[in-house]
């Protein structure tokens, strides 16, 4: 019975360890950050990958600039509301990517780092940075204003209705407008969520396209168009699909965000570090060798039985007799048989 209880205890400990490891693994591999490619909740951008896959393009996440902008031909890079500013040298690297034929999609609404990046990329577009509202054409509330694609969005077969989620507007400055809000929209300058005398109704650009060198820059005034919940809307999904489908590679540039899960960051580091790949490959080969050529020793580690403490039969008999003087030899023998380990032999002469 003691051995059986020990086996159950070992199984329980192993099961608990598996649950803990799986929980830690899931936590290390996922993120709750908005716009994260590792966040499958409503505010994450995990669904951008299946959208890219549907177009036949390969999808990857880059945490370093050189990885994101290595190959410009038939590649589109996506920048969603960066947390950190791009240095002049970093912006120059992105610009070279565009000039050599790459496409960059920049989406932001109120962040402080995007307009300086657009300026460094020699883009004429600027994000307004104030909330765009529409009290006539909206999805859920006036903060979810709707926009319509223009004939300039040639990658779409038909005009699409796009839905913003607390988005902003663009100052197009002569660039090609891909989508506009309705004539009833306005910029809520003071964020009081109502139209004031100083605020004017009018259609405003929310997506633009321009050529820089041999490449293209697309600017969208709401990064939420790329999150999971908003990609469920038919128009938004069609628009994002159209932006990606003419490319062979889609790269999500997370080089300027700190919201990369530890495990995902480790895998990305391993992918770009050949010497680490060699080291982990060697460790894997050693483990495989142990499993294949030393199976008994490996099984023995996990299947080791608990050694029982030897029991003195005479001492046990004397103790039971002193505690229960009314028991006869038959009763003593029966109790001892139930208590003593199975490998201990009891005889009538004991």
UniProtKB/TrEMBL annotation:
Pfam families: DUF4350. This is DUF4350 domain-containing protein. The chain crosses the membrane at residues 275-293. It comes from the Archaea. Residues 37-244 form the DUF4350 domain. The keyword Lyase does not apply. InterPro entries: Class_I_gatase-like, DUF4350. The keyword Metal-binding does not apply. Keywords: Membrane, Plasmid, Transmembrane, Transmembrane helix. It comes from Halogeometricum borinquense (strain ATCC 700274 / DSM 11551 / JCM 10706 / KCTC 4070 / PR3).
